[in-house]
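Incident log, structure service

09:12 report received: a user says their structure output differs between two submissions of the same chain.
09:20 pulled the input from the user's history:
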Amino acid sequence: MATIEQKEILKEANKLKSSIGTFIKRVVKAEENWTEVYDSKQPEEMYTRNMIELAAYKLQDTYDLFDYLFRPVKIEGNLQRSSSGRYTIPGLGYDLTSGMVIEFLDNEQWVRARIEHKMDYYIYGYPDIPLQGLQIRIK
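09:34 re-ran on a clean worker, output below:
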């Protein structure tokens, strides 16, 4: 059960996600007509443009992490090899394929990772974890 402090942190994270999203949209819009926003003959303005663009680029990763954090869990279960040779969760309706993002339970903690294939399916970064019967969830 979430503590009051955890709830407050998540509330702040959600507000931050919203602010970052607004900032990124504004930067993208400004870049569409950057000559109307920045004077290319002014080195300080061009420096500001470049730094703002770099900040927006780096903040996109933070936005994506928050976006993923707040997604609801679509399905949770134990992996089973399907008749196609891929892995699935009973009731999912499709097989997992390379590049799909999952979360798996490792030492009582959910770990975000992705499924990959080379000779057989495995979790990228965790090639020694057997998939058969592994508890996962998909957001």
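09:41 both user submissions now match this output. Likely a transient worker issue. Closing.
09:42 reviewer note: The mean pLDDT is 95. The longest strand covers residues 109-118.
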